[in-house]
Every structure is written in C-alpha cells, then in structure tokens.
Amino acid sequence: MLNRLMATLLLSWSLTGCAGNTNTNTNTNSGLADAYAGQFLIGTAVKSSTLMSALPDNNAPECREFNAFTAENAMKWQHVQPQPGAYSFVMADQLIQLAQRCDGQVIGHTLVWHQQTPAWVFEDDAGQAVSREVLLSRLREHIFTLVGRYKGQVRGWDVVNEALNDDGTLRDTPWRRIIGDDYIEYAFKYARQADPSAQLYYNDYNLYKAQKVAGAVRLVKQLARQDIHVDAVGMQGHYSLDYPALSDVEQSIIRLIEAGTNVAITELDVTVLPLPDNAHTGADITQNFTAHPVYDPYVEGLPPARQQLLADKYAALFSLFLNYAEHINRVTLWGTTDGDSWRNNWPIRGRTDYPLLLDRKGNPKAAYHGVVGLVNAAH
Ligand code: XIL
Fold first, then answer.
1. To bridge 355 with a disulfide, which of 13, 224, 242, 269 should be the other Cys (CB 3.0-4.6 Å)?
2. Distance of CA 338 from the midpoint of ligand 1 (Å)
3. What is the whole-number distance in angstroms between the Cα of residue 22 and the centre of ligand 1?
4. Residue nearest to atom 12 of ligand 1 (CA)
5. pLDDT mean over 86-96
6. Residue 148 has pLDDT above 50, yes or no
7. What distance in Å separates the CA atoms of residue 148 and residue 154, rounded to the nearest whole number?
C-alpha cells in the first residue's frame, strides 16, 4: 500500500517536473500577442542582423510578445535578388525558422517597390530602360521564385508597396513609367498564381489622409474588377505624438472596409522626437535632415510626462483598432525594441527615439501595459 502510494507520488512528481521543463522551453504565450489572441495578430519587424546570427530563443522578446513576423529588410528585392538571377535566401529562410520556433505567422514584405530595388532591374546591359515586356518578365520571375519558394509558409504578401502619392494619384516610379499603370494588376496576378492560398496586400503610408485612402480604395475596386481580391490594405502607421488625428485614422479604416477589403496596421511606430518644420509626415525613406541637438532632446532618457503621452497615444490607437478588430487582421510594430527602431535614424540619423512598446532592454514600457490593459479590462 505504502509502496503504491510512493510510486504514485513519484510518478506525479516526475510528470509535473517534466511538464514544468517543457513549459520553460516552449513559448509560454504570456505576452502581447497572447493578450490579443482572438482580436488580431501582433507582429514585429525583424532586423537583418537578428536573422544573420543565432535566432532569438523562446524567451527573447520576439517569441515572447509576437505572433507575426515581417522581415524589416531581408525579403526586399535588393536582398533577395541583388544581381540578375543571383538569389539569396539565407535571411528569408531564417525568418521562416524564427516564425516556426515562435509559433507565429510570416508576412512577406515586399514584392514591388520603387525603393530598395537594384537599378539593374529596370535597365538593359547598356544602362537603357528595358521594354515593358522585359520588365514584366523580370517581375514575374522574381515573384514566382520568391513567393513560390515559400508557398504555404507565408500567410500574406505586401505585393505592392507605396504606389500612391499623397493626393491619391499613382506615383511616378520606374515600374509605372516602363510597364504602365497596370503593373500593379500584373504584380497581384503573378503573386496569386505563385501561391493561390497566400493573402495579398497593398501597403502604404499616410493612408489616414483622405485623398490618399481614396486612391487606395480606387485601386482595390479596380483590382476587384479584374477579379483580384485585395485581402487587406496595410496602413503602415509611422506616426508621431503629434499626428495623425485618431478620427482621420478611423475614417480611413471605415473607407477601406466599405471598399470590401480588410485592414492591417503593418509598420506601427510613434516617434516622440521633434521634427524639422519642413519634414513630411509619412515614411519616405529618402528624407534625410541634418542632425542637431535640438531634434534629439532625450538622449539621457525619456521624461515621465513624455512617456505618458506615448502611452496615451498607443492606448488610443489600440482602442480604435479593437473597435474594428473584426476587419483588422494584424497590428505589426516596426521593430522589436526601441533600440532596434529605424526611427533612431530616420528622418535624421543617429538620434535616440522611443517609438515602440519595449525599451532598449526588451522590457515593457508604460505604453505596453496600457495596450495590454485594454484587452484585459474588456475580458
Ligand atoms: C525601412 C527599414 O526599417 C530600414 O532599415 C531601411 O533602411 C529602409 O526601410 N516603409 C516600408 C519599410 O515599407 O520597408 C521601410 O523600412 C520603412 C518605410
């Protein structure tokens, strides 16, 4: 009898011990993404240096907090196909690994963009612009190779990035100049053929502006007439404490839903730093202003009052997103910790910004707690 009791106790001890070990070794899902389960995915952009070294483990912020992973740069044309036909998938493969390890989704960013695309794509051997046919066939090959490689492993692709001007007209880019306005249609068709089950997105900044979102709506409707469904429009969300007005973001979300597409917030960050008067809103990566201490006031740390303003802004944004959660499939932060953020270098290089939810050590900030509090309060 005693022996039996001892055996049961030992067995239950070893099972608990085992389960305990398993728990510490797997994603315990106690982070941001877990709090928002059932609302929308919570993503992060993974920088190339992370993908070039040993992948973050299950306790690292990437795995702990997020369940959607976008390569900050690694899937862009200049990294995937820097030279004609010379593909490099080392970092992109790592992104897939990371998502598997962290039990998350992969988002492909991006197939067609006028930035971070090598000049050779648009030129012949003599450096002259190629014909429409040649560029279309390069586009097709690139999309089939990249999307085809990760078929079934990427939840969705930013098929076209930043094709619109702020007034909603089509941006003048080599893609449009050489192929014509229908380059967008072709890109979506190729992506659909290459992976019929991947979601397809149009992605842009400043979509809180009425004219620009009207342009996105026109695009979605025009593609629908060609039988191409845009699964979501990505509102990048490179914001500041001073803009945009929440009501503008809301109006744009409504416009997009009315147009028959869903919304993703794809590159969220909120700068707390002052900007030069002539800086544009949005995210034109070619903007580069001269550094001056006046634009970099928080090198030693963010004052509590400013920290609170950031928390308020994030809480307001996420409350809005929660109100439309049925149509918002994902909110991705553009980076993991404040130290990673591109906003430390854009639109002025070398500043100390605090635009994300985790501090430079990977610890939750006041804004993080506010965002988590919104869903905990609702449950
Ligand atoms: C940025 C990256 O964060 C930087 O590391 C890179 O130097 C430039 O591009 N819109 C986009 C993103 O769609 O791909 C950009 O990412 C930011 C603006």
1. 269
2. 15
3. 37
4. 72
5. 98
6. yes
7. 10
Please state the domain extents for the chain.
40-274+293-300+327-351
Q: Is 340 in the pocket of ligand 1 (CB under 6 A)?
A: no
Residues 235-248 pLDDT 10s: 999 999 999 999 99
Q: Is the pTM of this model over 0.85?
A: yes
Q: Helix 210-225 and helix 246-258: axis angle, to 10°?
A: 10
pLDDT in tens, 191-224: 999 999 999 999 999 999 999 999 999 999 999 9
CATH class of 40-274+293-300+327-351: alpha beta
pLDDT in tens, 267-276: 999 999 999 8
- 196: cis peptide before it, omega within 30°? no
Catalytic one of 62, 162, 185, 300: 162
Whole-angstrom Cα distance, residue 346 to residue 280?
12
Distance CA 331, CA 33 (A): 10
Task: Spell out the residues 6+ positions from residue 330 whose beta carbon is closer than 8 angstroms to its own.
Answer: 40, 41, 42, 43, 68, 107, 232, 264, 265, 266
Is 162 among the catalytic positions? yes
pLDDT at residue 4 in the model: 42
Catalytic annotation on 123? no
Confidence of residue 278 (pLDDT cuts 50, 70, 90): confident
Average pLDDT of the chain, as a whole number: 92
- Which ligand 1 atom is at minimum distance from the Cα of 203? 13
Distance from CA of residue 253 to its chain's centroid? Answer: 17
- Closest-CA residue, ligand 1 atom 8, reads 285
pLDDT digits (tens, 9 = 90+) for 155-169: 999 999 999 999 999
* Interaxial angle between packed helices 304-323 and 246-258, expressed in degrees from 0 to 180 and rounded to the nearest 10: 20
Please identify, by atom number, the ligand 1 atom nearest to the C-alpha of residue 205.
10
Give every CB contact of residue 209 below 8 A, 6+ residues apart in sequence. 166, 244, 248, 252
Tell me how far apart the alpha carbons of residues 139 and 291 are, in angstroms, rounded to a whole number: 38
Q: How far is the CA of 105 from the centre of ligand 1 (A)?
A: 20
Region 340-349: what's the mean pLDDT?
97
Distance 205 CA to ligand 1 centre (A): 11
Q: Which of 65, 72, 185, 267 is catalytic?
A: 267
